[in-house]
Amino acid sequence: MTAPRRGILAMAAALMVAGCSSSGSPDAAPTASSPAATSSTPRPRPTATATSAFCLDLETFQVGVVAFRSDVGAAIEGQPLDFEDLRARAALIARTGKEMQASAPRDIAGHFRAVLKAIDASASGLKQGAKVRDVVDPLYGKHILPAFDAVDSYDCGAVDG
User: Fold this and answer.
1) Nearest 10 degrees: CA dihedral of 121, 83, 137, 130?
2) pTM of the prediction?
3) Residues 6+ apart with CB under 8 A from 26
4) Are 71 and 81 in contact, with CB atoms under 8 Å apart?
5) In contact, 54 and 154? CB cutoff 8 Å
6) Is residue 153 over pLDDT 80?
């Protein structure tokens, strides 16, 4: 198996683990010590926002973006980049983001679009002869940090109530 293929599979596995965690899921079975198990009040049904493509895929997207930024950031320290692997991961993030974009809540939609554009800009610089700043600046420039921070810390559960 080639190194880029292993990298893509590793990212997909990490994204699936992050997206499949039932610890905070409203559908997770209550434990004996959880409030839902000891309370006679019914649990609230998830709202349309909580079941939107955006919210369902948010954790997966967040993990992918953090991993991508971290790996690209290694170039700052002079570490070589695997262009093919990073372009493939950027494409996976873009595909996931495109599916999420239509249902993004208004309070995060602008930041979300900015993050998608930054990842696209960084990925387009992933080619032989590129300067480090062409790949890193779109992800770490002062103007984009608030968007990355907002998307990284966004919690769909907080929107619902």
Assistant:
1) -100
2) 0.69
3) 43, 45, 46, 50
4) yes
5) no
6) yes
